[in-house]
């Protein structure tokens, strides 16, 4: 029992901390009413409801942004190793950029970049 005494005491302390945090949370929690409490907007009344939805026309633009954001995520490590790997890394990156270019052309043709 002696080797496990430290583990048992640590477990009891952890459970006591978790229980006390939960008890304090239950004692001091103020129930929020999201429909009655408007968000703080630097003293200005909000122009629309805080739980309003975005128009669906923004979703294609968001997906295009994410695609190019992920592109940069892949290009930074690629830039570090391109000199060591050589021509195959350059070909692979141009293939990747080609796929993204085809996606942009398709989105343009489908009207995802039209704002009207």
From TrEMBL:
Its EC number(s): 7.1.1.-
GO MF annotation: an example: NADH dehydrogenase (ubiquinone) activity
Catalytic activities: a quinone + NADH + 5 H(+)(in) = a quinol + NAD(+) + 4 H(+)(out)
Alphabetized UniProt keyword annotations: Membrane, NAD, Quinone, Transmembrane, Transmembrane helix, Transport
Main location: membrane
One GO CC annotation: plasma membrane
Localization annotation: Cell membrane; Membrane
Segments crossing the lipid bilayer: 58-78, 85-108
Cited InterPro entries: NADH_UbQ/plastoQ_OxRdtase_su3, NDAH_ubi_oxred_su3_sf
Membrane topology: Multi-pass membrane protein
Domain of life: Bacteria
Pfam families, sorted: Oxidored_q4 (PF00507)
Record's keyword annotation contains NAD: yes
The protein's role, per its UniProt record: NDH-1 shuttles electrons from NADH, via FMN and iron-sulfur (Fe-S) centers, to quinones in the respiratory chain.
Family (UniProt): Belongs to the complex I subunit 3 family.
Protein name: NADH-quinone oxidoreductase subunit
Upper classification of the organism: Bacteria, Bacillati, Actinomycetota, Actinomycetes, Pseudonocardiales
